[in-house]
Amino acid sequence: MNQTLEQMAQTLFRQYFVDGIDEENLPEGWKIGKLSDVSKNVRMTANPKDLQEECKYVGLEHIPRKSIALTDWSTSAGVESQKYRFEQNHILFGKLRPYFHKVILAPFEGICSTDILVIEPLKDYMLAFCLLHYSSEEVVQYSNQLSHGTRMPRADWKGLSGYEIAIPPKELFIKFNNLILPSLQKIKTDIEEIQTLTQLRDTLLPKLMSGEIDVMQTKPEELHEPVLS
């Protein structure tokens, strides 16, 4: 389901802002700019000593390839080095080996690896536009071409943010954002449901294996325990 929603969002994005756009003959109200004109790099550092153990942590290993939906993460327990803080609806862009194409929309606030760029749209109504640009093949390939290092190539904000784009007028930003937001919310809801079911499974399976719970003698409502988010 999420894959279908993502594909639909990317198709609409290309129809609105990529395919058929002639930079030499832009529609009225449009202009040529850069990703830095619609977004910024947020560098809020987090000291491991100041973190609560239940704080959610996202590493590169948690981010799927070619999907904006984050379905896995851990907690800050055991984190020893400095990390970056991020907020819900920030864009997380994996800068280490950018060709792995790891770009997601944060479904919650937390901390992440410093090998991840935390990106924030300059305006709320620019969210869908920015997300679908950063997760596009063109931007990922561009970041890879500008990456530094041979064995462990890394992209950087200065290079990435210089990617040239066609910037639409405000009303089109808003129209497109309103069109895509329901799909992004559905993806987030699906992620929460999957996480709840996973936690429920992890709670019940050991009890079933040990015989602590007898399925034949247990009412369905007794199987559901409070699940921490």
Automatic annotation (TrEMBL):
Keywords: DNA-binding, Restriction system
Record-annotated Type I restriction modification DNA specificity domain positions: 27-198
Keyword Ligase: no
InterPro entries the UniProt entry points to: Restrct_endonuc_typeI_TRD, Restrct_endonuc_typeI_TRD_sf, Type-I_RS_S_subunit
One BP term from GO: DNA restriction-modification system
GO molecular function, one term: DNA binding
Pfam families linked to this entry: Methylase_S (PF01420)
Recorded superkingdom: Bacteria
Presence of the UniProt keyword DNA-binding in the record: yes
UniProt xrefs under Gene3D superfamilies: DNA methylase specificity domains
Family to which the UniProt record says this protein belongs: Belongs to the type-I restriction system S methylase family.
Listed name of the protein: Type I restriction modification DNA specificity domain-containing protein
Species per Swiss-Prot/TrEMBL record: Pontibacter arcticus
Taxonomic classification: Bacteria, Pseudomonadati, Bacteroidota, Cytophagia, Cytophagales
